[in-house]
Amino acid sequence: MNRLPFQVCYYYTFLTSLYPVNMITIRIYTKALIQKAKTAGRYSTAGVYAHALNSFLRFIGKEDITFSEISSGMIKQYEEYLLRDGLRHNTLSTYMRMLRSIFNQAREDDIPVSCDINELFHYVFTGYEPTTKRAISPILIRQLSFLDLHTSPCLCFSRDLFLLSFYLRGMPFVDLAYLRKSDIRQNTIYYYRHKTHQQLVVYIEPCAAKILTKYSSKNSDLPYLLPILTDTGETAFKQYKSALRLYNLHLHRLSEKLHLPVPLTSYVARHSWATTAKNEGVNISIISESLGHASEKVTHAYLASFDNNTICKANRKVIATINTEKRKKNSAKKSNDFSSDE
User: Fold this and answer.
1) Are residues 190 and 284 in the same domain?
2) In 10 A of CB 173, how many CB atoms?
3) Which residue, of 65, 94, 166, 325, has the fewest CB within 10 Å?
């Protein structure tokens, strides 16, 4: 089949000038969506499109197929194929939702499909199966912070990134990697989450400032705050994926040093922040906003907009759990204040 011209990602009319709409196949159309996503800098989305496309083409056992040839029965058989292949429900759901997105966009472009899109995906799993959230206690995070790693600078850097993630309200590794120097204004980080594109505002507490000062990139030619990425565009995305693998490998080695029954991963800092905040009595809706969970419909149905001072106080409360001396002083101060009121 002919290779897609680059321009199709911009002009649907150009695509239809090459192929009649009823002859535009799922491979041709998805390749255009992949290129469009890459042009927009959405490399992760482009990657998932590619994985979903390749998986579906392996299932049908041929090079390509038109949209009108795909029935709800075939989609159900594809689901059974993925389950037999050992995929978990959440991975399966990702493929199905990406496939449904491809169909929805094709339908909007007047490409013929076999039936209503909702009917097409009605009998397959497109939801979310809750997974076990791995979190560690404040005591273990404190132990991690005191590990002597002066002979292992790479492990030390990964440890400090883990702590920084915790101190910055569970900031994901991808957002840490892409933080820019221009994101910091008046001791506050203003950034957009890669996953949801929601803007978050995070006040930099002293413990986080110490790590940022230690590792902030001194290379004036680089826009990034931390020494993780050295390029932009698709090359930067590849660097991020490589750095994430190395980060998780280092966290696994740190887990062994702490004799943890469950190894640390890049998301444990985020889960630990949320769990600790909940255990400290922080309101669930504040936790949700602190983490930028715009996709959590249940919590955001009643979520009011909290000012950043409230969220800053929540973050200080979480960080204080691994600083026992400061915690004791605060408790003593509260006791004295109570006595003076009487």
Assistant:
1) yes
2) 22
3) 325
Q: How many domains does the chain have?
A: 2
Q: Is the pLDDT of residue 283 over 90?
A: no
Tokens found for residue 139:
């005591």
Strand partners, 224: 180
Mark whether 27 and 94 lie in a shared domain.
Answer: yes
Beta strands in the chain (DSSP E): 184-185, 188-192, 199-203
The pTM (predicted TM-score) of the whole model is: 0.76
- Are 318 and 273 a contacting pair, CB within 8 Å? yes
CATH code for the domain of 76: 1.10.150
- Could you read off the pLDDT of 66-114 as tens digits, one per residue? 999 999 999 999 999 999 999 999 899 999 999 999 999 999 988 999 9
Instruction: Tell me: pLDDT of 26 over 90.
Output: yes
Q: Which residues contact residue 61 at a Cβ distance below 8 angstroms, ignoring those fewer than 6 apart?
A: none
Residue 82: which domain range?
A: 6-120
Is-contact 217 225, C-beta < 8 A?
yes
Same domain, 41 and 181: no
With a CB cutoff of 8 Å and minimum separation 6, the contacts of 193 are 172, 175, 199, 200, 292
